[in-house]
Fold:
Amino acid sequence: MTVPDTEVERRVRVLSQALRGAGLRLTHQRLEVAREIARSEAHPDTETVYRNVRLRVPTISVDTVYRTIATLEGLGLITRVDATPGAARYDANLEHHHHFVCTRCGLIRDVYHPSLDKVEAPDVADQLGKVESIRVQLRGLCKSCEGKENEDERRE
Ligand SMILES: [Zn+2]
Ligand SMILES: [Zn+2]
Structure:
């Protein structure tokens, strides 16, 4: 599963324009951080972005990765995935969508479905505040973890 090239290029253009707009010089390093996030469907954490970018840019520091991600998040161009265990995970897909989260290995995948888009806020929500959007998080075991669980059961 990969993000189509044209979409990656579009996202990289948006992200790099924003970095420049925020007054940051568009260095090769920052551009590679933006590209890594833009092309990933894995909702990577900072450490993963750092590891992957380092393969192409061995001189990059983890600090540069942190700051570039923080800037992009501050500008609202990438979002942090809500309520995931462990380190913060980032999403460059700004279209309205939902997530499947594996509670064992932390896999996160985008989910699009009209039935999830139709979920309505219940009346009790009004007492808490104004609901502006609803994102559904489907939690469970991914195929791979489920497979492992079945193997374990057979062994017992
Ligand atoms: Zn899993
Ligand atoms: Zn997502």
